[in-house]
Amino acid sequence: MPIPSTPLFPRNISADQRLTPHGVKRFASFRRWVLFFLAPALILIAMTPVQAQLKPDPSILNSVNWDQLQWFEDGRPTNPGSWYAVLSGDLSTGPWVVINKVLAGNFNQPHVHLHDRYHIYVIKGTWWVGAGARLDPNISVPIPAGSYVQHLTNHLHWDGAKNEDVLLLIYGKGPFHPQSQDRFADHD
Fold it and tell me: Is the Cβ–Cβ distance between 169 and 120 less than 8 Å?
């Protein structure tokens, strides 16, 4: 079979012409299309505020992003490794909603609540609970993420996190006293 005398890519054709069988004319029209349609679209996208930066009208609903939460360490020595962030309400009067973060390996000391006021939803991790005056994580009962718990009046109990951090959503009525030093009551 004879070798064609015309090379596949003649030397006098630019690299742009080699991209398409129609040569420069097609490439130039593509460039014009990009400049005409795509550039304004990119400008509009760049000028549009990022959705995460938008806040809903506070007269309609209140919201807070995770990275905007203010975390406070629960200063009681009976509640080690416990942090909370207030989502809503007044902790001195209630009602209130907090997120409680319990760090792995921490259990609070046995305590009671004076009112049936705590409604707790496990957001993340496994929360471990137990009853009685003796704190023993080995006999605690697992409460997995997605579970609901209500602490009842005057029942001595304790709870915490074993090998992973736990996030709890807690709704309460009445005063919340995270700085209380009383071992068996939270003065609610």
Answer: yes
Spell out the SS3 assignment of the chain.
CCCCCCCCCCCCCCHHHHCCCCCHHHHHHHHHHHHHHHHHHHHHHHHCCCHHHCCCCCCCCCCCCHHHCCCEECCCCCCCCEEEEEEEECCCCCCEEEEEEECCCEECCCEECCCCCEEEEEEECCEEEEECCCCCHHHCEEECCCCEEEECCCCCEEEEECCCCEEEEEEECCCCCCCCCCCCECCC
* Two tokens, residue 142: 């697992």
Say what the pLDDT of residue 30 is.
Answer: 57
| Whether pTM exceeds 0.90 | no
Q: Which residue has the tokens 């709870």?
A: 159
Domains belonging to the chain, first-starting first, are: 15-47 (no CATH), 67-172 (2.60.120.10)
